[in-house]
Amino acid sequence: MSAAIRYEAVVVGAGPAGCAAALALQRAGRHVCLVDDAPPAAAARPRVGESLPGAVVRLLPQLGIAGLPDLLSAADYHPCQANASAWGSDQWTYQDALRNPEGGGWHLNRAAFDAALRVRARAVGVPIYPARLRQLAANATGHYLRLDGAGADGQPDSQLPDLSTSWLVDATGRAAFVSRRLQGGRLRLDDQLAAVAWVAAGPHDHDAATRIRSVPGGWWYTARLPAGQRVICFHSEPATVAALVRNPASFLADFNAAALLPQPLPLATLPRVYAVEAGIARARQAAAPGLLCVGDAALAFDPLAAQGLFFALYSGLQAGRALDQCLAQPTQQPASLLNYQKQVDQVFLANQRARTYFYASEARYAQHAYWRSRLALPSSLLYT
After folding, report:
1. Residue 168's domain spans which residues?
2. Does residue 143 contact residue 10 with C-beta atoms inside 8 Å?
3. Across 111-139, average pLDDT
């Protein structure tokens, strides 16, 4: 193995969780880098997870970000004025943003948000290597990473250095590429999928609420986004989602039949419908010697809580702090790792309690296999 550039920590994945971890470590004075293999074209594609709760105003300053205006143009985010739900009932329930001291949060241009975090990381001195891991091996001082990236001509980039570090941060999302390799797998609690599409909001679509509605085979979610878009998601069993992905007309017809919006969406232009994972999964250990998992790599939970993006930032911040403590006081490493693991566990338990509350209210649909499977999910911590 050739000589490698040495970092105190290497963060694999430059999404919100990875950038938050890198920003927290850089603010602590640590020598950290990001490794991310997302091609430039992928950054422009719509991304699932566009909601940020009002509580983010307390979190962003801890990453050196004054607020959303410090990251995004006014055209890339707008306030969520209410959460509206028809769950286990045909009656709509509204939680107005005015009743929340921290506000109702925001709906984002997610691609712009992710890109802005990467720009901020570079601006404060965090190197970002546009590459994927070709080799991950143990060495005398921790981990040795060989990178594989493409140059401007699309050919392999031979100029990428090898990296060496004592600590890895897995921020590779649900793929959990690093922790799967180091821990021999991942705990998956269910197989829920979501069918997702982005459509034109329409000239008369001014609804600024997050809307969810349950139906016999699953539940719908929709929100109006910046740049005149609306996201539509249906969460259900894999077979149901697969059928909707193959038939966009049925997807839109079912959405209109659920009556989430005052006016039905036109069927003239059919969107592309994507299938994405939406089940509960977690790392076997979110905190272990030499490895911390953040974001979906640590805990990917039921989207019903709409906390995925906030948890990505929160877990990145807390993991960065824990790792800094491990580096500053090696004798306190077990306590620092245990504290971060407990923080992830607490989020998991809170999500499980919320899931139990919502799904139990769907007793009238309990005959359906989807609702039976949701009610059967374990509510305790699970490890394998």
Report:
1. 5-72+110-186+282-347
2. yes
3. 93
